[in-house]
Amino acid sequence: MERDIAVGGNSSLTGETMKIGRRLQPGEYRIEVHHWAGLPGNTVNVKAVFRNSAGVPGTP
């Protein structure tokens, strides 16, 4: 079953932050990116950092 955990968007050209106000359960997550200004099939670089409640990033 798929469901949206967070949805966001802005007009920033340098980056975007997505904050989720609750703890995520362990599992697999998919980040879907739409590059509206680009041509179809363009590569989009994405970096995901998961942080704990103290703001400390987890280890890969």
Polypeptide structure, described:
- The protein has no helices and no strands.
- It has one domain.
- With 60 residues, the protein is largely without helices or strands.
Question: Which terms summarize this structure?
Answer:
little secondary structure, single chain, 0% strand
Total number of distinct structural domains: 1
Report Rg.
14 Å
Instruction: Note the beta-strand portion.
Output: under 5%
Low-confidence stretches: none
Q: Shape from CA axes?
A: globular
Largest sheet: none
Q: Which structural class fits the helix and strand makeup?
A: little secondary structure
Number of helices: 0
Question: TL;DR?
Answer:
The chain has 60 residues and is low in regular secondary structure. The protein has one domain (1-60).
Give the helix/strand layout:
Layout: no helix or strand
